[in-house]
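User: quick one, fold this
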Amino acid sequence: MRYLFLLLSILLPTALLPAQVTDTFQSAITLPAGALQINTSTATVTLTPYTAHTLSVTYQPTGYDNPPSHAVAPQKETVKPVYTETSSTISWQTEGWTVSVTKDPFRLSYTYHDRPLLAEAPGYITTDSTHGFRFRITPDEKWMGGGERALGMDRTGQRLMLYNTPSYGYETERDLMYYSLPVAISSRKYMVVFDNGARGFLDLGATDPQALQMEAIGGRLSYLLVAGDTWPELATHYTGLTGRQPMLPRWGYGNIASRFGYHSQAEAEAVVEQYEEDDIPIDAIVFDIFWFGKTIKSTLGNFAWYRDSFPDPEGMMADFARKGVQTILITEPFVLKNTRTYQEVLDKKLVGFDHTGAPYHFDFYFGTGTLLDVFNPHTVAWWWRIYRDLTASGVSGWWGDLGEPEAHPDDLLHVNGRADHVHNLYGHAWARLVYEGMRRDFPERRPLILMRSGFVGSQRYGMVPWSGDVSRTWGGMQSQVEIALQMGLQGLSYMHSDLGGFAGDNRDAELYTRWLQYGVFQPVFRPHAQEAVPSEPIFWDAATKAIARDYIRLRYRLLPYLYTLAWQNATQGLPMMRPLFYLEDKTSLIDNQRTYLWGDAFLVSPVTEPGATEWSVYLPQGHTWTNYWTDQSYPGGQTVTVPLTLKTMPLFVRAGSFVPMVHPVNHTKDYRTDVLELHYYDHASAKNSSWTWYEDDGHTPRAWEEKQYELLHLSSLRKNRGLTIRLTPERYAYDGMPQERLVELVIHGIEAPRGKVRLDHQRLSPKWWSYDGKLLRISVPMEDAPREVQVRW
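Assistant:
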């Protein structure tokens, strides 16, 4: 069977009715570590519990050799399922999942915490050109997933091709893009993941409204099941199975200057200098394709500085680093003819080959050449040496482009199969190459790895995805919230966009301003564009530059909050950008891609239409919301219309929220928290709340695991015309940790305290607090002991 799949190269049909595999139970064996092996008349089926909430189901048909899993992270908990068998059924139960086995015909069905969720119907399927799985689902379910698409949040009824592909100049609709992940997310809070990187389809009720179907032309015959009782639980369980995103270095959350591209050392140095002159924060600069060649075409594969344009890149990078600006370089996986490495990679057999064993060549936009085989261990070792040497010379971050790969003919052969069978795994393997090399040879550094394509679990290799070559139009911006929310639900929380838009010559100051405002509340802030219209705010008019400066400074002020969201993502798998249904569990909110939650505190609604003077925003029920700009409060469960100026965007804070901020700096190397401005949003409806702020040195890779961090546990209690806020430090040693800290507590929405402000039950002198009729400010010195602030009115 496997040889048949390897020979297939025809295009997949739109849809084929699957052939049902007639199968009957023969025997069952309990394996070590809690797995269950079931032998049927046509296959060996293995159920593996990774945790009480996650499991894999792998089919091994007779004569078929399954490739290894790329989706599952290499660790699991000890789970001991309960096994019960009768003459006609088997029950296999963890603390979360119950798998019911019908013996004749052989079928599997699944229940989670007494909630029947789905059943194989018939389970394993084949067509003339594919194999996969088919499940019975309920008609009231809504479905999300499938990776990066511009289709709307609700993707029910769609048949989605699984093939990573470039998507130049897209706007509001595009059904096939850079990340076509085989992930189906049900509105009933469970996920089905096809652990298969081959070209295929994900059918979310398109062929049959009561069926979920996953199919591919080859690859692994396995699926993963994940469930939770809440949306945050589902995220935690899913990333526990597929891996969690390591935190970036702190500079990675700052402003990153980027364009296509900087042509010379002098040009790049002038850009950094202009940022300094304009007093706009900056933490990194990206060098696109021209760092290794003078032209766009026929230079891929040089992998070395073009010294004519960059005479002293090492000195340039060292000078940038002293100023607090890191360097990121682009690389591509193609090696074109007449480049410096072309003959070497052919001689060492580091590229894809054809059926005769000769290096595979093809023509595409950038020239004529070949493709590095990232599945070949010799290629991995060779390519990493290039990355290693450049990193040692001063490069701080890496950007992998065209990694779908952009050109990847199916008859190109890799060491582990033909192109279409491993296509969707290419970017995943590439990110792993860079990440594992960094962890091995630069263990003191946190990697930053921008990648345009990946697979399930790519986040565990530090992958920072972006939404590709979006059109520089309002339509291009309108699809960005959907893309980021969907990818966050699928584990890739760092999805962000080229701020301002990439493709086209549209110079629109209003669009640029609105996109940068939105970017403040994205995981990564990186304006990037074709060079006909500048991506950097320093090259815009004075009014646009001033607004951009204010918002970039706001991002830097909010770094303690953003950094905590990154920690939550790294330790719990929670996305930083969250759909509204995370807070109000209402199926209809799946359709809302206009507004999202930025962590626990903020509600953000980017302005995505020109000339808007007001904006309608739905506020989730069960909470009170405060307008960030005016401090006006609104009850949730309603749509409010707020007035706009070009300087403001709809931004609300949930009552009961803590928001840590710092005084603005122009580079994160100057970031300090010895004075921490801590905002609390009070309201009578917020009776109690809690939140934890996380901090470390900003660069140690395993700071959390090695207890090189500190936490500040925060809680509030409001009753009897009084508010109590408790600050409880949990401190471990790390470089640069302040021994003392002054917390400037700023309480919003509170009534006049009438002189009754206490710290640890002692009345505070007025020199330690003030009230201006709107905000109560209290200075709280912190060391290692808890502090308690009491306010009465």
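User: anything notable?
Assistant: The mean pLDDT is 95.
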